[in-house]
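hiii, so i know i said id send this last week but things got crazy w the move. better late than never?? heres the sequnce for the chain we talked about at the cafe, plus the structure i predicted for it. fair warning i was half asleep when i ran it
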Amino acid sequence: MSEKILHGVAAAGGIAIAPAYLYHPSGLTVPRRSLKSEDIETEVQRYLNAIAKTRIQIGEVADKAKEKLGDEHAAIFKAHQVVLDDPVFQQEIPDFIRKRRLNAEALIHEELEKFKALIADIEQTFPALGTQIKDDDGKLRRFINIYVNDEDIRFLGGETYLFQDGDEIMLIPSIAGGKF
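okay and structure toks below
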């Protein structure tokens, strides 16, 4: 085993000898697997089990947040639960697994990429909007409200919403400020 010395900002003083993991923010690599006919229902069940487990975990985190921070701060986890109830997650991903014979992660990733492509298309078509709807890190600004078919996208799953052909999309900036 060769020794490599890394220089940077320490999280804590002292010396630590352990495996080091480097973070490369180059993007997410999602495995893409074609499924055999006999593996399709197993993949659907694996996906549905993951959704059920996620629901339980979100509930546990919400309970801890409520206990430590109060109802107001724990309310955000209700939105996370709403994402899991989205018809795309409940019906369409399992249908896509069956029809396209691909693993769940790949299909979810594809749908999330559609959302990114929509925002990129808006930025390209209306360049002045780009700096208005995204922050310096490329994340959507919190004060931008996105509506899909007259529904607030935050209640449809946020950035995980899977757009459908024919969806009507509105970007509406929040209006705040002023004095009484």
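btw Helices lie at 40-69, 71-74, 76-85, 87-100, 104-125, 127-133. thought thatd interest u
miss u guys!!
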